[in-house]
Amino acid sequence: xxxxxxxxxxxxxxxxxxxxxxxxxxxxxxxxxxxxxxxxxxxxxxxxxxxxxxxxxxxxxxxxxxxxxxxxxxxxxxxxxxxxxxxxxxxxxxxxxxxxxxxxxxxxxxxxxxxxxxxxxxxxxxxxxxxxxxxxxxxxxxxxxxxxxxxxxxxxxxxxxxxxxxxxxxxxxxxxxxxxxxxxxxxxxxxxxxxxxxxxxxxxxxxxxxxxxxxxxxxxxxxxxxxxxxxxxxxxxxxxxxxxxxxxxxxxxxxxxxxxxxxxxxxxxxxxxxxxxxxxxxxxxxxxxxxxxxxxxxxxxxxxx
Length: 305
Prior knowledge:
Strand content: 15-25%
Number of strands: 11
Low-confidence stretches: none
Helix content: 25-40%
Oligomer: single chain
Structural class: alpha/beta
Mean pLDDT: 90
Radius of gyration: 18 Å
């Protein structure tokens, strides 16, 4: 998919090197099609890395994507230059009257806090409520999945005894879901979290469908009927080196974290990690854009309700 992003966005240089199909705004304006409007609410500290990861995955189908980057007005980011945010990002107030085909809400390193203790919780609640009437399909990632399940369905989270970190085998348990069409019987997805959702409550809720699960990592994908709201507890978007960087950061800080499971050859952190989830990450995001956004969203975005 040609993805339309600002030419000067740092992600553009990285994606060009990877042969990702980027489209300049002038070229996009000459195509007689309506691009899919996808908003990325980036809650991660290193916004440049995260925006690059998601732009990469959103680029892999034959449609045109217009990516809108959003940040929280009620939170000051300390890990991304203020100039970058002011140049490339908008706040919710700037887009609240607009409608989008899709919205991705990223994870955030706040999972040990109670939801209401997060400094931007009330703003995030406003966005999640807004998404019900202004976005056709919303994809919640990791902590955002926990936050979304809590806000929309009252499902809580629990603190794990040790951090769950690694690349785990998963299987599709709801074969009728088009979101995982074409996936292997067993495929691998990274997880990196200190908390987990109340799986019993998820399985018991009549509006929620468990799509994918793992013997080691638990439930990975949950959806409402029709896919207007989708929740991923792991990180399909991660680059090959992210778990390695997190592990070494935590160890340097003196934290007792496990070696990421099934990630390094022989589980030896001195070895170079191997990326074993790239193909399925691209497939799942392409399926989301095709079956849950492009095929279903109204041509006239104002018809979304």
